[in-house]
Design a protein that fits this description.
By secondary structure, this protein is of the alpha+beta class. The protein is 13% helix and 30% strand. It has one helix at residues 2-10; strands at residues 12-13, 34-35, 38-46, 56-63.
């Protein structure tokens, strides 16, 4: 709950939230947070069999417009 509140307060969203963990037994705990106004084109988990016990997570995103001033 605290993390969700912090993301909302900071104007962020987490496009990696629905990606699986390495073992495919649940959701990953590794995430990428982006400004809420960014458009996400794709998210992907890349299996890494060497060098790390974690997988890689990639987000293709772009900023289409900057948000207006807060009121």
């Amino acid at each position: 709950k605290h993390l969700h509140n912090a993301l909302k307060e900071l104007g962020l969203h987490v496009p990696t939230a629905s990606l699986a963990n390495k073992a495919n037994t649940g959701f990953s705990i590794d995430h990428i947070a982006l400004p809420r106004h960014w458009i996400v084109n794709s998210v992907e988990r890349i299996a890494v069999d060497t060098l790390s016990d974690l997988d890689a997570y990639v987000v293709d995103a772009c900023e289409l417009a900057k948000p207006g001033p807060k009121s």
